[in-house]
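So, read this over?
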Amino acid sequence: MKIIAAIAMVFFLAKGCGNETAKDMQTAQIEYTANTRGFFQKLMVNNGVLSKSEDRNSDARAEAINLSKEQSQELIVAFQEINLEDLSDYKAPTEKRFYDGAAIGKLKITYQGKTYESQEFDHGNPPVEIEKFVDKLQSFAKAE
């Protein structure tokens, strides 16, 4: 009987931790921008809604995309893998943005009252540490 109670308690606690993380992800404000002279893209995630804008002068024309539960969960898993304290130290794997070979990408995350920003990197080729997360954002924006 004690074993069953212990297993039930472990299951209950594990499930509670997952919900706490999901709640924390919902409080985060995520902004990804990519731009060059002739291209602009801004993706923002806040409370399970992805906003996509291609107008650099106004957020008023942003397209709102409601993320499904599966998409939100995939984003949460990728978000958990990012060490926010080290975000500004991640190095870009390529430098095509220096000669207009790629748009300039940047990730900005506001989480628990603190803002974390990445260094600039080539759009489509982010640092390895945030690649999964940025690729998920891009794929959800393209899916709609």
About this structure: The helical segments are 2-27, 69-80, 128-143. The longest strand covers residues 29-36. Confidence is low (pLDDT under 50) at residues 1-23. The chain is about 40% helix and 25% strand.
